[in-house]
Protein: Peptide-methionine (R)-S-oxide reductase
Organism: Sinocyclocheilus anshuiensis
Amino acid sequence: MAARLLRSMAPHTSMALLQCIHSHKSARPLLALIPPTTLGTCRRKKTWPKTFPEEELRKRLTPMQYHVTQEKGTESAFTGKYTDNKEEGTYQCVICGAPLFTSDKKFDSGSGWPSFFDLINKDSITLTDDFSYGMHRVETTCSQCGAHLGHFFDDGPRPTKKRYCINSASLNFRAKNSPSEEVEASGGAGQSAPSSKNEEL
Ligand SMILES: [Zn+2]
């Protein structure tokens, strides 16, 4: 009975296969039309020296901090706690504690987000093309942990003419005279082996 059923299905199957091959062929030129930049957007696959379990971050961060740093969100303008902060000190990545900016490089851009015209260390931030929302911007990401920070523009003040437009939610401010400068101690074993915990999804 099963054999009879199979035989009766056979012509059908081969037709379907033929159709499949055919449509495959016709789909090929379409694929070629897709610009390589679209196909190559695999920045998410990049592994960072420091990784943090999602569970830990959800516990430790506010929903806004999580959304901005892990889901490339943006806090509303003029709502972040550091936009008007004029205290002397250092701004660190809220996720991994890497020092990113100092208060003497902060300026009032009028944008509603903390803005800086220079970094502490040029390698501390990774710049990536961002084509979301139908525009081309340059995304800024923490080079240590991959946290989304904000965007980079080249319309800043002298001498650098750069503007790092950063979400307060991505930052942790440490005042100059704050006693606990030791961030590394609490961070733990993040620095030693880059390939120790490769949690690629
Ligand atoms: Zn970081």
Remarks:
- The radius of gyration is 24 Å.
- The domain at 48-177 is CATH 2.170.150.20 (Metal Binding Protein, Guanine Nucleotide Exchange Factor; Chain A).
